[in-house]
Amino acid sequence: MADDLETEDGSWILALEGALDEQCSLHDLRLICRSKSIPDSMRGQVWHRLLGSSTGSTNGLERFNEIFDLTNQSKLREDCNILVKKLDNEEEDKVSILSDLESLVTHYCKTHHVNYEPNSGWLSILTPLVCLKLPKNELYSYFNAILDSYIPRQCHFNGVAMHLFRLLLLYHEPELCSFLDSHKIAPNLYTQNWFLSLFAASSDLPAVLALWDYYFIRGDPFLIFFLSLVLVINAKDEIMAHKGEKEKILETIAELPQQMEAGDIHDFCSLAVLYSAQTPFSYKRDYHQALFGEETSEKTTDLLVLSQALCLPVSVQELLVSCHLLSPPTKADAETRALRFFLVDCRPAEQYNAGHLPTAFHLDSNLMLTEPQAFNVAVQALLSSQKQSIAAQSAAGGEHLVFFGSGREAEDQYVHMVVAFFLQRHVQFVGLVQGGFHAVHQALVAAQMESGIAATSTFVEPVGLVDHNPSLCLVCSSNKSDATSTAAGKSNASGTPLYAVGSSSSNKTDFFGRMRSKSAVVKDKFLDYIVNPISVGDNETTPKSKSKDHPSTAGKSKGTGKLYRNIAPVFSIDDDQDGDDPSFEGSSEREADAPNQELVAISSWLKRPDVINSFRCHEVKESGHAFPSYLLITSTHLYALREIEDRPGFARISVNRSLSSIMKITSKKRHPEFITFKYGNMKGEETIIVDLDRFVVPQAGDAVKLVKLQLFNNSPTNANS
After folding, report:
1. Cα–Cα distance between 217 and 49 in angstroms, integer?
2. What's the maximum distance between 2 C-alpha atoms anywhere in the chain?
3. What are phi and psi for residue 630, nearest 5 degrees?
4. First CA to last CA distance, the chain
5. Is 216 exposed, middle or buried (0-12, 13-18, 19+ CB in 10 A)?
6. Cβ atoms of residues 362 and 354 within 8 Å
């Protein structure tokens, strides 16, 4: 490779010599050595500088009391003797090395209050260091620095390090992770030696020296996770070829580091860095302390969170920084290239409509149980939308799927089912936001408070949300309840009696109870909310004025009802599956007729003068198949242009309907983007449905509103006025 020592250009070595003589900064030293294999004669000096921040320990080897009384002292002496016999040193040197090794390991155990364990990896770490022929005190400093800064704790079964590695494997290669899980092969069975020795126990010495050069120059303790990840993922086919053979799988994985040579290290490490860059970085901030910091009582909590994690957690802070709704907290974070997330908001429709992130795709998790067919259609629409947004390089585009729910445990169980649905299908890059929408909402409010913009306000608007309506937002309601309870508690403390002020939890219960009991009454208001989404400035509209413009259809039979201004009540919100209408007499399933439908150029149809507006959508068939399409609305007709996959820019006219034939437009309460146009005729006051078309339209409210407007304009009463 161009940067190797063997290249004709050795100017970087002269620069390195000068930098070491001048005691340059670590930053400059890393720039000089980046992607280089350090010469043997200079490796000790370079490592001393790179590890120097940890080598000034007050418990250096010079303080050793020369008392060898560890519980496993004899085993330690035996293992040191085995190591020394493998070295190429002269026999007289081996005696001195044996004494030094036993002394420094004994001193380390005593100063850190731990026992020596044969499988700790310590002697494997000492092997490359001994080859540097360092003085005894310096050897101990290097050893101590590596253990403290680069060897993760809890590499045992059910340890934090192993849970994190599995989640990283699940994030990047879910199929392989599932395969290993099915064979009950936990990460500690194959990565423990790698983690505890930084591959020194499994690879040849020249490869280890080159690897450690790269490792210390980069200075990222989490690199071991991605080096291990690269090894396993690159051997995926070989591993999965041994299905049902657990011992053979473990043997195959164990042999992987043995194949590494010094010349492979640059590419190996570069690939690991690439995987690291393609991973949400929340885990580094969340688990650095547990893995590489001081021992704390928080490790039990860290273990619990990771052991129960369904997929890789993504912090709210990282999510909002990627959406440009928060500034990076540190300079290092600002210099880190943020991943582009495709956000999936899995809350119920009424919560989503009360406020959501601007680029979030709505996928109601409740549909998975209540309406599986609609859920499958929505998933297809999600994946298609993700693909299109990536191709268009839109702000909403990103390969990394990040799901979030409301933040309430009971509701988020359905969100976990949705995430599991994607993982079971081996979808890569699946993450879950910690704390859900509640945490998102509170983080935006906190940012406003910290900025001082709303420091004196009793209500803080979470700037960054779209269509946020505080009166419908459950988080705002909860915050108000908490604030009321706090204020009431203060009043009570000063002697003021409390009147009808309940606790936060009781207010929440009352809130959900009111929602259920009034569902029939607010049906028309909710209909109006879907068709005409309420903005923050629309709160002045009174219920009375709304009901005047949109008369309630509550209490009317499904197939009958008085006409309003001679127009049938075309819009309704159904609880049942579309197509279950008892008066339905036909079917619009024409999938087989697609080749016979008229072929048109999409651009020319979109520019037609009679087209009032067009909407990107998916046409949905009863089989559950969804076809990328355009929904076109003229003053008299409704068209759907179904895109042709192998002919970009062309489509077939799959739907050609007269607006006058529309009898009903139904939408799901929990999935308002899924709309159905039902066609038929009137017999007296009875509606006869003879056909239907289904679509998933992201702008369903605008589309339905436009259709209703054309129906009103074409009505006999309006035409004669």
Report:
1. 10
2. 114
3. -120, 135
4. 83
5. buried
6. no
CA angle (160 as vertex; 442, 120 as ends), nearest 5: 155
SS (H, E, C) 292-352: HCCCCCCHHHHHHHHHCCCCEEECHHHHHHHCCCCCCCCHHHHHCCCCCEEEEECCCHHHH
pLDDT digits (tens, 9 = 90+) for 181-227: 999 999 999 999 999 999 999 999 999 999 999 999 999 999 999 99
> Is this structure's pTM higher than 0.85?
no
- Length, in residues, of the chain: 721
**Whether 579 contacts 678, CB under 8 Å:** no
pLDDT reported for residue 330: 59
Q: Is the pLDDT at 625 greater than 80, yes or no?
A: no
Per the CB < 8 A criterion, the answer to whether 116 and 141 are in contact is: no
Q: Report the alpha-carbon distance of residue 289 to residue 269 in Å, rounded.
A: 24
Q: Measure the CA dihedral 384/386/388/393, to 10°.
A: 180
What number is the average pLDDT over the span 347-362? 93
pLDDT at 496: 37
For 2-35, letters b (16+ CB in 10 Å) and e give: eeeeeeeeeebbeebeebbeeebeeeebbebbee
Q: What is the structure's pLDDT at 404?
A: 95
Confidence of residue 452 (pLDDT cuts 50, 70, 90): low
Yes or no: say if 430 and 403 are a contact pair by the CB < 8 Å rule.
Answer: yes
Cα(411)–Cα(369) distance, rounded to whole angstroms? 13
Segment 165-171 mean pLDDT: 96
Task: List beta partners, residue 341.
Answer: 400
Query: Which tokens in the block code for residue 163?
Result: 């849970």
Across the range 550-564, mean pLDDT stands at: 35
Which residues have C-beta within 8 Å of that of residue 700, sequence separation ≥ 6? 530, 667, 672, 673, 674, 675
* Structure token digits, residue 197: 């020795």
Rounded distance, CA 465 to CA 452, Å? 19
Provide the sign of the torsion angle of the four alpha carbons 312, 313, 315, 316, taken in this order. Answer: positive
Question: Under the phi-then-psi rule, with left for phi > 0, alpha for psi from -120 to 50, and beta for the rest, what region is 198?
Answer: left
